[in-house]
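Can anyone check this?
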Amino acid sequence: MLGTALSRWTMSYFTVALVFLVAAQMLMVAGYGFPAVAAETPETLVLVHMVTIGWLSMLMCGALFQFVPVLIAQPLRGERLVLPALICLLTGLAFLLAGFLQLAGVFDTGIPLLAPAGTLLPAGFLLVCGVLGGTLWRANLQLPARFVAVGLVCVLVTAILGALFSLLLSGYLPALAVVDFRVQALPVHIAIGLGGWLSFTAIGVSYRLLPMFMLSPDRERATSHVSWWTGVVALLLTALASPIAAALGKVGLAAAAGSATGLAVVLGMAALVLYGLDLSFFYRLRKRRAIELNSGAAQAAFLALALSGVLLLALLATGTLEHHVGALLYLVAFGWLTGLGLSQLYKIVPFLTWLECYGPVMGKKPTPRVQDLVIERRGWMWFALYFLGVMAGTATLLGDQPGLFRAAAAVTLLATLAIVAELVLARLLANLPDDKRLPEGASRPRLFLPTLP
């Protein structure tokens, strides 16, 4: 990792992502979107896509631009396309959110704003996949990179389905107007987006980051390979079974599709169990006995992932999945994905800042340690508060208490703001003594833009 070139725009992606996370949480506290209104309303769609695209996807793209070269020990190909991808994604997301507000009646321009979103967002993700896929293409893909490769396919599928939704709502593609996209395509859009693009990719990156940060054995295990295969089959069944059966319109095929979906759930649960065994292996055999905050807080995110699986099975068993799907998605998005994202940012941002600032003088001048850029005893409190807020928020959604949910969301917002402040302080080198902050030859990093040559 120390010999890897820094991705110029990774910190910009992280900054955009954190802005959207904070903005989305503010809207939740204000009672905007679900659960104050129905899940299918345009207001809820604004909130959902701020989280899934603005926060989680921007975070994932920024992280992959930095860590895919680490996974395969090769430089990033087509790096000049990273900034155009960011511009396309931001512009497309702006049109998407404006289009949802237009559907909500907030304003009326007479122009369907969802249509350009249906072009710009897929174009942005295509650029991301082009850069990352081109980097992976000729490499000997080890297991973590194979998880990422599947995730890239999933984001293209998710983006294409989203584009079809946008164009259909804009009045285009009249031939598809007879298709009930809400029943036939929306579940696939959600499952492949959250389960494939975001979760499968996060699992793959964690297979490399956790051993690296905890000094654990990083050899490939049989459980890891089986987890990959079962996860891939589960994603394929989820993506193909229901749409094919719906298109053919036969009762027998519809029943077969239901069985395929049930098999996908079983395989997905098996993949999670095997992943849990690998996580236990990493933590038990780590050489760094004093666990750092990023690895400690990640344990709470892994617990949220396990609880999400248990909750899914419980809702399926009781027939209440449709009624409580919002609580499940909230736990996945904020407990598992956001929890893991924030915990790893707490290490990645200081790590990249250290490389940017002190890498040029490493071995020539005394430099602080990476962990000196943050104050972990203060950070533990914020992460504990964050996960308590998420658990409370999930409980209030299960109990149909939107007022209490806003209070729980306020707790997570407070914790998130504190964690973001810690990241900014690390970026500014504010936690270092004046005499150790900038040795001769070191350069102060810019907050979120690339350092000038």
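Reply from J.R.: I decoded it. The two ends are 21 Å apart (CA to CA).
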